[in-house]
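Let's practice the habit of predicting before peeking. Look at the sequence and jot down your guess about where helices and strands might fall. Then scroll down.
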Amino acid sequence: MERPINIHAAKTHLSRLVERVEAGEEITLARAGRPVARLVPYRARQEPRRPGAWRGQVVIGPDFDEPLPEFESAIGE
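Done guessing? Here is the structure:
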């Protein structure tokens, strides 16, 4: 695995990094030596989305749209 590239250096050499990614390379970006993101080649979806593909796999509880109890609604304040 190649050494991560510092974000500051990546900003300076972004065009060059994008060329490397277009050639198939994956590049890890780091902040203070700690990996935080990856640049990877874009891959278009191979097949179109199918409506209903998750049918029967997702269950929504009957109380889904009920108001939250007071203690839970206070968390977002």
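How did you do? The CA atoms of residues 3 and 65 lie 48 Å apart.
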